[in-house]
Every structure is written in C-alpha cells, then in structure tokens.
Design a protein that fits this description.
The complex is a heterodimer. Helix content of chain A is 69%, strand content 0%. By secondary structure, chain A is mostly helical. Classes of the chains: A mainly alpha, B alpha/beta. At the A-B interface, helix 4, helix 6, helix 7, helix 8 and helix 10 of A face helix 1, helix 2, helix 3, helix 4 and helix 5 of B.
C-alpha cells in the first residue's frame, strides 16, 4: 500500500487493470472458467487524485467508465443525443462530488457509486425529456435532429462492417436477427417460427457481436496502418 | 453477480435483447460497471444491433443478393394447398378463392405481428398537457410520424368527489358525436390523467376531451371540465 501511495494514481490503476488484461480472453466462448478479478481496482489514492483534479486520473476515469455508462444509458434512453448528454452529466456529477471534498468510505465501491449517479441521471433525463410543453403555433423551426457528417460517416462505416458480418452468416440466421432487431417482433413467436429456442438466439447474437468486434478491430488496425504509413 | 455467473447465464446477451427482469438488469448493470469484460460484451452487442438496424434498412450487397437469389424459396403452406386443389378442381374458381384466403391470412398475420410489436416495445412519446377551455387558447397536439398513440394529460379539479373519471373524446362542437370513451381511476392530488389517443382514430382538426365523474349509480356526473385541442399531423 505504501508503494501504491507513492505511485501516480493512474499507474496504480493501470497496474491493476493490466492484471485483468492478462487473464485469458473470455470472449472466445460463451462459457469460460475465468475467475473474476478480486483485487479492488480503485483505492484512496485514486479518489484523492480525482479530488485534486489530476488530469491523468480523470482521463482514466472517463476511459474506464465511458463504456458501462453509455451501455446503461442506451438501454434506457432511446435518443443518441440524450445518451451523450446524460453521460456527460454523469461524469460531471461524479467529478463535482469528489472535488467538493466528499469521498467514499470504501474506495472499491466507486463503480457502484458511478452506477447510482448514472441511474439517477437517467431517471431525471427520462422525466425531463419525455414530457414536452405545448408546441406554440408560431414556434421557431426545430433543429435538424440528424447527425453531423462525422457521425454519419462513423455510422456508415459500422453499417458497412456489420453488413459484412451479416453476409457471412446463413440466410436463416440473418432473417432471425432481422426480425428480432429491426422489426422488433415478439422473440418467442419468431423463435417458434424458425424452429429454434431463445438460447439459440442468444448464441447467435454472441457470435455475431464477437465477429463484429473482430472486424471492427481489423478495420481500425488497417486504418491506423494506412494513416501511419 | 460475478463474471463467471454472468457468462454462464449469458447475461450480456440477455441484457442486450431485453430479456432480463428489472431486478436482474440492475444487478447485471452493477456488475458490468466493475467488470470491463462484461462492459465490452454489452457495448459490442448494442453496437452490433444498432449497426444491424441501419444495415438491414439498406439494400443487400451484390454478393448477398446473388446468394439469396440462388435459393429457391420453398412454397408456403397455402401455396402448396392451392396447387393441390387447383390440380383436383380444374374449374378456375378454387385457385382465386384459395389465394384470397391466403391473402387474408397473411394480412391478419401482419396485423397481429405489428400489434405484438407495438405492445411489446417501450417508447418515449412526449405527452401534451392540455389546458381547460376557460383558461387559455387552444392547444395543439402534434402527432409524430410512426407513432401509434398521441398521449395527452388532463387535470381534474382537486377534491372532486369521484373515484373514477370518464374521459370522452369528441370532434369539437359535436358533443353528441363521441369518438372514444375511456375511464380512469382518480389520480393522486395534483397529478393529471394521461390519455393515450390512438392515432388511427384522429385526423387533422379540432377535438375536445370532456371529463365527467362516474357516479355511484354508474352514470355520468355533470361535465367537470372540457379540454379543446387541435390535432396536427
């Protein structure tokens, strides 16, 4: 612990995170006997660094929690804009909390704390943005809700890659994913029609998303290589 | 929940597919906030589904189309029955009748499937707070493309001695031409009643909602309030 106190907060966190990265990849199969990391990832030092507005600690925090915060908010808020705003609000609130001098009794519970803040923000956003006031007759034109060119390009790239993944899978499986994801039909009814069970659908999604991630990584590497060279 | 349990129960896939109960989802969320592997699993699942939605809306690439064209679709049940009957009853009546029946069945299937989809999809639609006739100008209820319901909120006077309210939708100035009637239990004090107006029953134009109380005898009380509004698609 003394060594950890002397080490920079991000280095301490990264040291622990690297332990998690050394574990065999659990994404290869649905069932895996990998043991979870039992050592807490965040310590008092790290919280102190957050309170002191240490940029490295803040960057690590954002990097670490962006994914779970976004996933949770996506499941609750449909609009991408709302998800983005609610993510920023969540990070802002957590930073403000620590910068105001407050801390946590148990630093290891930081993920739970962030989860609670994120949950409260999602509820507030749901309340605030799902009831709108009356639209007046002479209201100004509303802003175009479509994404900017950069976001459109990213969406188009993801769509191209997912199309590649979908083309690799059998027609029946593609139709199954289509009916469930795009048409949002009753999953039980669709599974009955395709003569498969719900576990099949989950395994199908699991394989597809693993393949999708691989293709994304390959694409990113290619881009990195081509821009670097 | 630990990582092993999350994997064994396919929690990430269940979460993305919306198969977890609220309590299970919250438990899993708590887990993936401290488990980067599960966070990646959920994120990539959501990314895949979002991108798949966009991809399915686009036309198939030439390769996939060619593969699809090679496969001859198996005749449907109705097509096979229709062919058999047509072979037996050469007179040309049987085939159109069977085709019509098949079309009706297919239509019913599509309607039922759409209905299921509407009933099982969580959506966030802005509700418009209506204001009573004597308190302001007319309200506009915008109907958004693709929505099946237009939610509105109406207030009931505090302390009104009714346990149930009857809300009647009329074309304005046609109070005897009721389009829809719905009953609602009295909301908590200060809270409005939310009414989901089915879009299929609405057109551009002026409407009003009249609120009555349900008397102990099962009849309507005198009119409590009236909320005029204009529907705009």
């Amino acid at each position: 612990m003394i060594a950890a106190q002397n080490a920079p907060p991000k280095a301490a966190a990264e040291r622990k995170l690297s332990a998690a990265k050394l574990m065999p990849p659990a994404e290869g199969g649905l069932l895996c006997s990998v043991q979870p990391v039992s050592e807490p990832l965040f310590d008092e030092n790290y919280l102190r660094a957050l309170a002191a507005r240490d940029p490295e600690a803040e960057n690590f925090f954002v990097e670490y929690f962006t994914r779970p915060v976004r996933s949770k908010l996506r499941a609750r808020l449909r609009s991408q804009d709302l998800v983005r705003d609610a993510s920023q609000e969540t990070f802002l609130r957590v930073f403000r909390y620590f910068q105001s001098g407050k801390t946590l009794d148990n630093p290891a519970s930081l993920p739970g704390f962030v989860h609670t803040v994120c949950h409260n923000v999602s509820l507030e956003f749901l309340r605030s943005f799902t009831r709108h006031s009356q639209m007046p007759e002479n209201a100004p034109e509303t802003e175009d809700p479509t994404s900017g060119p950069e976001a459109l390009a990213a969406t188009s790239e993801r769509s191209r890659l997912v199309t590649r993944v979908l083309e690799e899978i059998p027609e029946k499986d593609r139709q199954l994913i289509r009916r469930v994801c795009l048409d949002e039909e009753d999953k039980d009814a669709v599974c009955r029609e395709f003569n498969v069970d719900r576990a099949y659908l989950r395994v199908l999604l699991h394989r597809a998303r693993i393949r999708f991630r691989d293709v994304m990584e390959q694409s990113n590497k290619t881009k990195g290589g081509s821009t670097g060279g | 929940m630990d990582h092993l349990h999350a994997q064994q129960t396919q929690a990430a896939e269940r979460y993305v597919l919306g198969e977890l109960t609220a309590a299970e989802a919250e438990e899993f969320e708590l887990h993936f906030f401290e488990c980067p592997q599960c966070a990646i699993a959920v994120d990539s699942g959501q990314e895949f589904i979002d991108a798949a939605r966009v991809s399915f809306r686009e036309p198939l690439t030439a390769k996939a189309k060619a593969r699809q064209d090679v496969r001859t679709p198996r005749p449907s049940f109705f097509e096979r029955i229709s062919e058999t009957l047509a072979a037996i009853f050469r007179p040309a009546v049987a085939v159109p009748v069977m085709a019509a029946l098949a079309a009706i069945a297919a239509y019913e299937g599509v309607v039922a499937s759409n209905l299921n989809r509407v009933l099982e999809t969580a959506v966030s639609v802005p509700a418009v707070q209506l204001i009573g006739a004597s308190r302001g100008d007319e309200m506009i209820v915008p109907v958004l493309p693709g929505e099946h319901f237009a939610p509105v909120l109406v207030d009931v006077p505090p302390g009104a001695p009714f346990k149930t309210y009857i809300c009647v939708l009329n074309r304005e100035n046609h109070e005897n031409k009721e389009i829809l009637t719905s009953t609602s239990p009295a909301p908590p004090d200060g809270e409005p009643i939310e009414i989901q107006l089915p879009v299929k029953r609405l057109k551009d134009g002026k409407y009003d909602i009249v609120v009555y109380g349900l008397t102990p005898e099962g009849g309507r009380s005198d009119r409590i309030s009236r909320y005029p509004f204009t529907v705009r698609f």
